[in-house]
Amino acid sequence: MSNCLFCKIINKETPADIVYENEKVIAFKDISPKAPIHILIVPKKHITSLKEVKIKDKELLGELFLVAKKIAWDKNLKGYKLIVNVGRKAGQIVDHLHIHLLSGKPSHHNKLWATPK
Question: Which of 11, 39, 69, 93 is most buried (most C-beta within 10 Å)?
């Protein structure tokens, strides 16, 4: 996707603070963090959202979660949240599947970080 921001980051056409990369996945710091640690974990294969995932993508989905675990381990995180927004009404801004990894002391007014009661 030529105008996809995350595809541009994957192709090194747009700069990002990359914290992890392999042949299938890239992870980088969010430019508008909602927590002290806010990393986006993105498949290099362009998939618009979780709604578009096919059965053949199940290994890639597993890879995304294993990368999240590795990043959390490498950063010695004691706790973290993984969030996937699906669609505009759920807060998905970029049309490329991604997982938000959030950790650290949350802001009390941040709805994205809020724990359900």
Answer: 39
